[in-house]
Amino acid sequence: MDWHELAPMDIEKRSFEIITRELGGRTLDPERAPIIKRVIHTTADLDYADTLYFSEDAVKAGKAALLAGASIVTDTRMAEAGINKTALSKLGGAVYCFMSDQDVAGEAKARGITRAAVSMEKAAVLTGPLIIAAGNAPTALLRLNELIWEGRIKPDLIVGVPVGFVNVVESKEIIKASGIPCILSLGRKGGSNVAAAIINALLYTLHDREQ
Amino acid sequence: MDWHELAPMDIEKRSFEIITRELGGRTLDPERAPIIKRVIHTTADLDYADTLYFSEDAVKAGKAALLAGASIVTDTRMAEAGINKTALSKLGGAVYCFMSDQDVAGEAKARGITRAAVSMEKAAVLTGPLIIAAGNAPTALLRLNELIWEGRIKPDLIVGVPVGFVNVVESKEIIKASGIPCILSLGRKGGSNVAAAIINALLYTLHDREQ
């Protein structure tokens, strides 16, 4: 089909139809399906149908936090850029990335830890409903877990989808055991794009967008 | 190993060592290896060792354009956010994303095509060395190809790594046949993060960063 004949709004619709077809006979939890499909839409990687982990209460907790105007803290400028700010601000929410902040950089250098770890400490002083969306740095999740155990932070939802080869698998297992509602990409895969896709899927469900 | 004991700068180094080990006996072209490895580092997806396609002259053309202070035009804010602007600006280059521009949105709506397609027309009026980095929209590549054939644009390099299910595979095959130096992720996979990783790998090689 000539690409000129396919209207922009039909491209996404058709993509989701293909994804649904390729997932074939699988029965996805209806509450989780829009999230799983949007991540596959973002990555063209059907593995996520198997590797996305949801704690029992994750979707409900995430939606409630967004409806209450949650702050979302991400560990990359890319995830920040990918989250739909129009949809988020309509609910009174906002997204923050502290990675480039001077105080975070200075503190990280002084202590010899990553800026992502320090940025979780900065997230801990925010008030109101909170979602952590980590798409890059396992150290963000590892420090976050310590802060949870110290009683210094209690996010409403953790989207924990860092990607890579060092401490990544472990960081997700630790969050899985934290008792905090979470959506995780078990294994090595994930990324800023996956983090943004999960947040956007939650937002679009709340805005009654079709997918 | 306790994560506190691993210095931030060692995490990336160790990640690349793991990638090199997992690629095992494969012989990667030395000029292409840093790009392939950085994409795998960004995605934790070893498939890219097989699916990244380089035209014969792509790496040399990309480096020459960056050294000459190239403009990079991307099709997403995420790719724009992911490209290392410090490394780019040291060479005199800059990155542009026209997707949110009012004139692009208006033109796209009026003509019933995607903003990504219109943004390629906007790229065509830039002067000087030019790299197109498309990580999302196949329609960017399809319109780009038309502009190339019409003689309205001649990028020094096309990084063509859109992701998805509709027109994605075809868009890359069309660019492959365009005669323009290109780096492509053949198949459905790709993404804004992959586009940024390829540009950054080229930049880091020029800046003599280890990986």
Describe the structure.
Two copies of one chain form a homodimer. The first copy, chain A, has 211 residues and is of the alpha/beta class. Chain A has one domain: Cobalamin biosynthesis CobH/CbiC, precorrin-8X methylmutase (Rossmann fold, 3-Layer(aba) Sandwich). Helix content of chain A is 51%, strand content 11%. Chain A contains eleven helices and six strands. Chain A has helices spanning 8-22, 33-43, 48-51, 58-67, 77-82, 85-90, 102-111, 115-123, 138-149, 168-176, 192-206; strands spanning 52-54, 71-74, 94-97, 130-134, 157-160, 182-185. Chain A has a six-stranded mixed β-sheet, sandwiched between helices. In chain A, helix 10 (168-176) links the parallel strand 5 and strand 6 (182-185). Chain A is globular. Chain A starts with 7 loop residues before the first helix and ends in a 5-residue tail after the last helix. At the A-B interface, helix 1, helix 2, helix 5, helix 9 and helix 11 of A face helix 1, helix 2, helix 5, helix 9 and helix 11 of B.
| Estimated radius of gyration of chain A | 17 Å
What is the CATH class designation of chain A?
A: Alpha Beta
How much strand content do the residues of chain A show?
5-15%
Summing up helix and strand content along with how strands pair, one would put the structural category of chain A as alpha/beta
